[in-house]
Amino acid sequence: MDLGIKGKWALVCAASKGLGRGCAEALADEGVHLVITARGSEALEATAAALRLRPGAGEVRTVAGDITTPEGRAAALAACPQVDILVNNAGGPPPGDFRHWDREVWLKALDANMLTPIELIKAVIDPMAQRGFGRIVNITSGAVKAPIDILGLSNGARSGLTGFVAGLARQPKVAGRNVTLNNLLPGAFDTDRLRTTLQGTAQKTGQTVDAVAEARRLLAPAQRFGTAEEFGAFCAFICSAQAGFLTGQNLLLDGGAYPGTF
Ligand code: NAD
């Protein structure tokens, strides 16, 4: 299926590894030109080199920098001739007990997982509406739908983004101009982030990492972790020409782990 986005420009944030990279790969396969970002340049350049080798790939530009800073966002936007597709992503906040979090800790989480995507949306959405095409995908978390107690910073900051996006997506001057905003909610995906979390649990509980991973894997009825490739393919479809009627949605990819009917 041709997704009808060949030649468009996408800014994919935090894309040297994991879910962001999966999205960049799937968009590259559709002939979308890419600007990808990450904090360190080594992994970023290696990912860009691999993306350029994919059949049908367009131009691939890199911007090393922290997307949660104004400078990082300005550099990423400046590298993209026009942003037709925006994939918002950044590292998740640390786990912990809210009794130990002060205002500074909260502001850092809000900056990374709520205000950074909102700032980037603000920079790109009006030109998208003027051109009559825009696709904005925010990588959030299954924790927005089913909170995880030790991830209070994530539950809170990402829920703030979700509420904001729900209102913006429904504005006629946005939805009526073929600009869509949707959130992708990952469950457990096999990435560095997941491996770090599993190692942390293993250290805390005295179990082996393998035992912790096995227990976590079996929590999902799919009996496995998701892959960045399947996450990216789903993201690319949401960015497609065909997905113009899909907006303001929270789409959970978790192998059936969420137990509710809706
Ligand atoms: P990952 O650790 O595999 O990759 C993170 C990527 O983001 C890397 O390329 C890293 O360089 C980049 N990055 C991190 N902080 C950045 C910043 N401030 N500026 C620029 N680049 C930055 O992580 P992942 O598993 O792909 O997770 C992506 C997002 O999805 C995170 O917010 C994570 O919390 C969330 N999430 C992941 C899972 C999962 O199971 N993997 C589940 C729920 C939510």
Write the layout of secondary structure elements.
Elements: E1 9-12, H1 18-29, E2 33-38, H2 41-52, E3 60-64, H3 70-78, E4 85-88, H4 103-131, E5 134-139, H5 152-169, H6 172-175, E6 179-186, H7 192-205, H8 209-217, H9 228-238, E7 250-253
Parallel strand pairs: 1-2, 1-4, 2-3, 4-5, 5-6, 6-7
The protein binds nicotinamide-adenine-dinucleotide.
Number of strands: 7
> What ligand species are in this complex?
nicotinamide-adenine-dinucleotide
Residue runs with pLDDT of under 50 for 5 or more positions = none
The rounded Rg comes to 18 Å
Main sheet record: 7 strands, parallel
Strand content: 5-15%
Note the overall shape: globular
Helix content: 40-55%
Order of strands across the biggest sheet?
A: 3-2-1-4-5-6-7
- Average pLDDT taken over every residue: 97
Structural class: alpha/beta
Kindly, what is the distance between the CA atoms of the first and last residues, rounded to a whole number of angstroms?
A: 28 Å
Number of helices: 9
**Helix and strand element order:** EHEHEHEHEHHEHHHE
